[in-house]
Amino acid sequence: MKIIIAIAILALIGLIGIIVNNRIIGKKNQIKQAFGSIEIYLKKRFDLIPNLIAMLNKYLAHEKETLLKITELRSAAEKASGANDKIKASNELTHIISGLNINVENYPDLKADKQFTNIEHELSDIEDQISAARRAYNAAVTSYNNTIEMFPASIIAGIRKDQPGTLLEIPKSEQKEINVNQFLNS
Hints:
By secondary structure, the chain is mainly alpha-helical. It has one domain: Up-down Bundle (de novo design (two linked rop proteins)). 77% of the residues lie in helices and 0% in strands. Helix 1 packs antiparallel against helix 2, helix 1 packs antiparallel against helix 5 and helix 2 packs antiparallel against helix 3.
């Protein structure tokens, strides 16, 4: 009888261990999925930048140096590996784009161009989507961190040597939405 009770207790502990382990794996996969969403939106932004540059090139030949820098940063951001590296490269790109000093008032044809207006709206939408994806990523990381730090999952996480995830913290100076009108006004 004692053997049956001992086996039942061990089986229960094993079952709880399996359930907790699977929960931790699920939380890790949620982080990967959330980061995948960020990558999708960053890719959309990267794909839109050549259209913006082509449009601006049409009107602003003297701004070539800035446009070349944007192209270089776009390429560097696409080649970055790891979540934090990609976000850092993307933030540098956002910083450069928001720092463009071009005066739209001097380019009435650009201001009136429907393609330019569409690109401006797409950039704004993509920035909103990136922001939402970052929030979802941070929520997934927080959920994972809570899971691995709370009992009984902390025991399994310790055995698995799971480390807490890092939240995406964007410096305040880089938390600006891309506003084409803003960076085209000097």
